[in-house]
Amino acid sequence: MNNSNIKDLENKCKWLRRTCFEMLLSVKSGHPGSTLSQIEILVSLYYGEIIKYFKNEPFHPDKDKIIISKGHAAMGLYPIFADIGYFNKKELENFGKKDSMLKLFGNISIPGIDCTSGSLGHGLGVGCGFALSAKKRNKKNKTYIILSEGEMYEGSVWESALFASHHSLDNLIVILDRNRNIILGDTEECLALEPIKEKWSSFGFHADEVDGHSVADLIDKFNKFNDINNKPKILIANTTKGKGISFMENKANWHYWNPISDELINKARSELKIDE
Questions:
Q1: 247 contacts 241 by C-beta, under 8 angstroms
Q2: I need a labelling partner for 155 at 20 to 30 A (CA). Which of 5, 13, 243, 260 fits?
Q3: Is 258 among the domain residues?
């Protein structure tokens, strides 16, 4: 991928961040920190030609599955889904409002959302079911799961990891959004998770790490996963909570929306300006 394409994808990241920020601002609610840390991951999957989808066809039987297991961040997909024709772009203006199709948490009533999530620790189990079903039906569909590191505190995650390894679900790709911050603060201070890569490897996964804010590196790692057979995969994406808005970065309190001044709103918009 040449530098021009990478620049286009980086601007796509700014577009997605800016759109998500404006959506959250419009309802003064939601989860900005967790949404903004995964932006490059989502852009790499959809605009880096990694995930298989069909424009204007959210229910196409041959599309890949995607689950944002940390369901409070599922809204990061909404602008992408509108952009690829899953629903009208005007729906974004109704995000989070009464009777809106687009909820704060993703659910399967929304075209493109494959799994209702939000109860943490269950996305991987559902994804294992999708992946096993595809294998049994000789389908080439892959399942991508964006997992939060806080979910690694849930026993159901490790039960699902054992299941995925036992069934050699090489069509299952987990992306761990490793921003080091859960609602209570730094994971390594709350209850240490390291060494993460070694833990997942010991459960039978092919594990790798990446700069989670480099679209070029993310795309490269995803493509290399295609050569790994007979094992589920996990990509540990090292990210920054609240990435892209300086006063939100690495701040656990921005897990939730906070009151914000006009000065800070203008600052965020300036930092999210798309380069010409």
A1: no
A2: 243
A3: yes
Percent helix, strand, coil in the chain, to 5, is 45, 10, 40
Asked if the structure places residue 276 within a domain, the reply is no
Q: Could you tell me how far CA 55 lies from the centroid of its own chain?
A: 20
Judged against a pLDDT cut of 90, whether residue 59 lies above it is answered with yes
For 77, the token pair is 């997909």
Q: Is residue 121 part of a domain?
A: yes
Q: Is the peptide bond before 195 cis (omega within 30 degrees of 0)?
A: yes
Task: Show the domain range for 111.
Answer: 3-271
- Helices within 32-106 (DSSP H only): 32-37, 39-47, 78-83
Using one digit for the tens of pLDDT, what is the confidence trace for 1-51?
Answer: 666 699 999 999 999 999 999 999 999 999 999 999 999 999 999 999 999
Asked if residues 74 and 95 have their Cβ atoms less than 8 Å apart, the reply is no
d(CA 104, CA 68): 13
- CB atoms near residue 29 (< 10 Å): 12
CATH number at residue 11: 3.40.50.970
